[in-house]
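Q: A reviewer asked whether we had any structural model of the full assembly, not just the individual parts. We don't, so I'm hoping you can provide one. Inputs are below.
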Amino acid sequence: MQTVIHGKVRLALHELRGGLGRALLLLHGLGERSPSALPPETSAWPGPVLALDFTGHGQSTVPAGGGYTAEILMADADAALAQLGAATLMGRGIGAYVALLLAGARPLAVRGAILRDGAGLAGGGPRPGGSHIPAIEPDPVVPPDPFAVAELSRDIRPPDYASSFARQAAQLSGLDHPITVCAIGRPDWLRAVIEEPGVEISDPHSALRAYAKIEAA
Amino acid sequence: MHEAARPQRDEAQGELEQAAAFPGAVRPARRRTVDRYGVRLAVYEWGDAGAPPLLLAHGGFDFAGTFDVFAPLLAAGGWRVVTWDQRGHGDSAHTALYSWEADTRDALSVLDSTTREPAPLVGHSKGGSLFTHLTEACPHRVACLVNLDGLPSRRPSPDVSDHERTKLLAADITGWLDHRRRVSSLERKAAALADLAARRGRMNPRLTPEWLRYLVTIGARHDADGWRWKIDPALRFGGFGPWRPDWYLERLPGLAVPMLGVLGLVPEVMGWGTTADSVRAFLPPGAELVELADTGHFLHIEKPREIADLVLRFLASACRP
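A: Here is a predicted structure for the entire assembly that you could use as a starting point for your response.
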């Protein structure tokens, strides 16, 4: 396991399979953790396969007092990219949303983002709901951090905000299809994203095959 | 060498003593700590411990000590004034994560530690905005709300093509991500007291050099190599995210407690550029809106007596327990 330092948090980066060439980075769903073995659908990937535990999840630091946003998880994944170099991302649930954000934010370092179903795909919807402040009983021992689950399941995802990341990826990545949607779920943000140019709908095998062919930037 | 160094040190000591006093500024009468969810918050109180409590919240990049003139005036009006350094600010913990929701929860922790009765909330800038959110979330905990230049304004759409806007957004976000990549090794720059005051003066151009020097003595720490602001270097001005000011505006009409909004109309760098016309239609029934034409964003620092009188008069009519 490698460690990635992100601010005051130590993130666990698991190497599921070594190798040379561009990495495939797996991003887990909300409340989940990195898989302990190589997911079968990724076995044909030509390079190394790694998986990141987000802040408050798996073997990463559980910080005190919450304060989670999807944007800080994007910065988690970006800190992993700083260590790995350019990578292809495959995210489940909230990891899919984070993969989209990072594909737009680091269009040259993200060589394709694959968006799949998983926990936290919908987030808190396109607009704020109630302003309720949930009472949290932090569990000091077992991740995931209950703050992460409570706060990130309320994370607001306006469709036009999500599409702006897809648009940035399309305009600045130089890739024909920087985003591939393999999810069946269609929360509002994802429905808007698939309308953007450069967003392909496909299955994980085909998406991985297509991104494996991308030359080094 | 030793002899030559001494006058310099005396000079620095003299500068500190001079800066550490400011007319009307009174350090808090009591200090305590609230530690909930593992986040240590520094809490301060002015006034009679038995007086009815009132909660005060500072703005972003400020700290409780910025109320050293304003809070004693409210306390003299018969209130137990309670405030705290928000996480990452002043003497409170530097946390791994910062968010709006976390700040609101912290505010509730401080309120819980103070009273279970409905209390008046008085917030400046981001603090006003936080308290507006808290009022909507927990109306049963709030007696009335004072928002000092923390009312939202609609962000103007930049007059650029869609493609240009995409590039602007990209630059904002990569700038923030680059900051996050460096953040574990960031440290505030040490400098002489006068330099820190001058630096802050660029963000607070309407405040006097004497006040800014005073702020250094309470908001910065003195290390061997000079003064450093205590604020967490992870905190960064500006940013991006999904939040829309419109959503905040839409919350205002439903607020169920008496409300006073005060706007400083002189535009400045830390201000929000809110005009009375842009918010009036969204105010809850009976809310009072006061515009101060010749005042900037830090209205309680520019005009502590006038703002304290305004707030005390409102509290007396709206929520004296």
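A: Points you may want to mention in the reply: Chain A has one domain: 2-212. The beta strands of chain A are 2-6, 9-17, 23-27, 49-52, 87-92, 110-116, 179-181, 199-201.
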